Amino acid sequence: MRVISVSRLEPSKRPYDFLAVAQRVCAKRGPVEFVWVGDGTMRMKVVEEAKKMGLDMVRFVGRLSEDKKNLLLHQSDVYVSTSESEGFALTLGEAFLAELPVVVYDLPVYNEIYNDFPLKVKMFDVNEFSEKVSLALDKPDWLRTRVIQAKRFVEQNYSYQSVGRRATQALNEILKLS
Amino acid sequence: MRILGVTEDSRFLAGGRIAFIKLMKALAYAGNSVTILSSIGATLGVVDPQPARIIRINVTQARIVGPLLYMFKLFFHLPRQIPQAEIILVNSGYTVYIVALLGRLFRRKVVVLQHDVLGLEYLQSIASTTSRKYTSVLRWITIYTPLRIVDGVLCISDSTMRRLRGMGYSGPAYVVGNVVG
Predict the structure, then answer these.
(1) How confident is the model at residue A90, as a pLDDT?
(2) Contacts of B16 in chain A (CB under 8 A)
(3) What is the DSSP letter of B99?
(4) From CA B81, how far away is CA B65, in angstroms rounded?
(5) Which of A17, A38, A59, B181 has the most crowded CB, counting CB atoms within 10 A?
(6) Using one digit for the tens of pLDDT, what is the confidence trace for A134-163?
(7) How far apart (Å, rounded) are the C-alpha atoms in residues B97 and A120?
């Protein structure tokens, strides 16, 4: 089983929380692979911390091409984001397109963008986060249904066509303003 | 519509830069003529901008020196590209000031694509070293102060628009979302 996160390794993404969640999930369920895709200024420190914590099942694979990233998403079971601030969270949408359940901290922006499709966790509560990841790994039927609905929602609202149409309209209106 | 897009890039892959190229691509799919001006960086080979055209300026990937060199080179590239565009869309970041000023000079409307809106206090709190604290102040100034002189803002979410309004921005703003996939 594999849990994946795609993000820069920066403080606002809280990669240490990712390690704490990995530790708790593996302690409860046995070996589950945790993969972080993305690079950043914290990489050395976080890799070192994972070693110190003895987390052999955590891998930091760095930056990947879109194709490789999407392949890895499709080969995973759960998507997580421990970020504490987001403007949109593009990768959540990509995870839904790959039909993955998503576990995140409860940021208001997620409700605006993805309705109630992600599984939300109280801010910085790594114990609750681990429990939700475990739940998602069990893949209950209600969660599978929710993920399929989320995929359809993303396809309808965030396609090239729908965003291109909205942006063209906005730019035209700005051009008309004196 | 003929649109010029301007964005920064660096050796680290950032969602905001990918989102910008995808938005330009979406605008091209919607029937607009789109050219993107960017630097060499992590998005190269990651996102295919077609049918939008992209011009990548060659600069070093080093921190501070890379952005400074890119800004310097933009002073030569922008005057060639701006007259061919009807409107300029610039990705939120350190290039906004230069684009806004040159856009005014050439009488073209300049619109910013705004992603997350982060307060200075927050940026300071996550800066791990003294030099990063200084660069975060500089970054905050270069991102948010030029919003006073642009013609509009495209926001990726309602949340971004709310925070932008909370910071005092009162100009035209529209929520367009991001392309996913």
Answers:
(1) 87
(2) 87
(3) H
(4) 24
(5) A38
(6) 999 999 999 999 999 999 999 999 999 999
(7) 38
CATH, residue A40:
3.40.50.2000
What stretch of H or E contains B111? strand B109-114
pLDDT tens for each residue of A6-21: 999 999 999 999 999 9
Range of the domain at A87: 2-176
Partner-chain contact B46 A66, CB within 8 Å: yes
Of A34-43, A70-79, B139-148, the least confident: B139-148
The mean pLDDT value of chain A amounts to 95
**Residue in chain A lying closest to B123 (CA):** A12
Residue B157 sits in which domain range? 2-175
B178 to chain A: which residues are within 8 Å by CB? Answer: 88, 90, 93, 158, 163
User: How near does any CA of chain B get to the CA of A161, in Å?
Assistant: 6
Looking at beta carbons, which residues of chain B come within 8 Å of A161?
Answer: 26, 29-30
Contact B13 A8 (CB under 8 A): yes
Please judge whether B30 and A164 are an interchain contact, meaning their C-beta atoms are less than 8 angstroms apart. yes
List of chain B residues with pLDDT < 50: none
Q: Which of B84, B93, B111 is nearest to B43 (CA)?
A: B93
User: What pTM was estimated for this model as a whole?
Assistant: 0.78
Distance, CA of B33 to CA of B28 (rounded, Å): 6
- Across the range A50-57, mean pLDDT stands at 95
Question: Predicted ipTM?
Answer: 0.89
Q: What is the pLDDT of residue A123?
A: 97
Q: How many domains does chain A divide into? A: 1
**Separation between Cα atoms, residue B179 and residue B177, nearest integer Å:** 7
In this structure, is residue B115 part of a structural domain? Answer: yes
Q: For position B165, what pLDDT does the model report? A: 92
Nearest to B179 among A91, A158, A169 (CB): A158
- Give the three-state DSSP class for A19: helix
Output the domain CATH number for residue B134. 3.40.50.2000
Judging contacts by C-beta atoms under 8 Å, the chain B residues touching residue A40 are 12
- Residue B181: inside a domain, yes or no? no
Give yes or no for a contact between A63 and A36, defined as CB atoms under 8 angstroms apart.
Answer: no
